[in-house]
Amino acid sequence: MIEKQSIPFFDRYVSVFNNIHDTEPKEMKLGEFLALGAQYREQIMRLRAATGHETRSRLKKQLPMMTTNGVFRGGRRAECLAAYSGLICIDIDAKDNTEVPDFDHLKGNVLSQIKEVAYAARSVGGKGYFAIIPLRYPNQHKQQFKQLQKDFADIGITIDAACSDVCRLRCLSYDDEPYINEDAVAYTGVYREPRQPQWQPWPRNGFADDTDERVYLACKEIELRKIDMTDNYEDWIAIGFSLATLGEGGREYFHIVSRQSPKYRARETDQKFTSFLRSGSKGYSIGTFFYYCQRFGVV
To answer: Is 283 exposed, middle or buried (0-12, 13-18, 19+ CB in 10 A)?
Structure first.
């Protein structure tokens, strides 16, 4: 059942730090923290205008920060979480969503249409968004986050996996026109591990050679143990090019490896593999795939 939270989300308490180096946070209502953005507007705009990574990072570390997920006492570790806020903050970064159409209007076109989104605004760097969502089961934070990640992936949006950390800091930001929905309902999704699949004897026509058999056996273990080797985009591309050296026969292997990630989208994976076949090996060999298998403990 979906139900509205009893305490307005602006009135939930969070821990607020003056900057990244602050070790003595104070408790503050979420609405009060978000309102601070107007006071720090000039600093935030200076950060967005900066071009060097080091400069941007330094300016960001000087801004106030909060723990969206609740109030911490005695340290910013999971065991120091004194009270859940019942909220989670997700990040949607431009670099992870290059194929999302009209990304500049994602806040108004997409986030504002999701009834569980209570607040959405530009992130501090100005190139992405963050959204605050009330949770129905905050004590199942990671499971609710994983389901959120899956639900957003289903509509073609990748959210930052780091948001699964209950201790994660949220930097103060500013948006001239944030999206606010005080009637947001609590998100009820909870991720459940799927039942262990029964491995099918594939390929049915036997193996072309020893290499094909080794790849098959590795993919069997990857799927049975649900090993995600593709969370990093560059790793995913390298594995794809490597499997493409097998020709069209590597396509299903690439799908098996890719779908262990919550970011997996079948159509995108298919299109990528086709592009790998057209581009040639780019210097990769099937050895690259075996390198990643060894790195992730696939025997």
So the answer is: exposed
